[in-house]
Amino acid sequence: MEEAISFKPIGKIHSDFKKLEDMPIQPSGNKANKGRLEIDARYVEGLRDLDGFSHIMVIYYFHKSDKVKLTVKPFLDDNTHGVYATRAPVRPNHIGLSIVEIDRIEDNNIYVKNIDVLDGTPILDIKPFIPNFDIPKSDIRVGWLEEKSEEVVTKTSDDRFK
Hints:
This protein is mainly β and 162 residues long. The protein has one domain (11-150): Beta Barrel (Elongation Factor Tu (Ef-tu), domain 3), CATH 2.40.30. The protein has one helix and eight strands. A six-stranded antiparallel β-barrel has the order 1-2-7-6-3-8. The mean pLDDT is 83.
């Protein structure tokens, strides 16, 4: 199970967030901020027909996260939880996922709204967000976040995952 897997970025995220502190902790906490996904020229053909979608899932690499912790104290709680029950960046593979709204696509650039990612973050993949595919039809539970999920709109990051 220790087989290494390697990825090559398909592009880079550009945002107003130059440091880890004071960033929104989730896309829904940043409705006003816009960003740009710069796609490498080799992959531009893959953007064909993406303009028909309003939202995309952006999969990226937490390139400034060099620690791994299996238990963390997340931004929205004072209790410690397993890293897989959080969205903390200090995960074993440092992979992140954000759902953002497409503003427009020009050449190799996807202009997006609601970006919550550090400037310069490598993009691993992009997929269209399709509610009928991506939202389960059964009851959804959000565990320890049940009473806290609305706080995400006003909460910003600090240095706890440095």
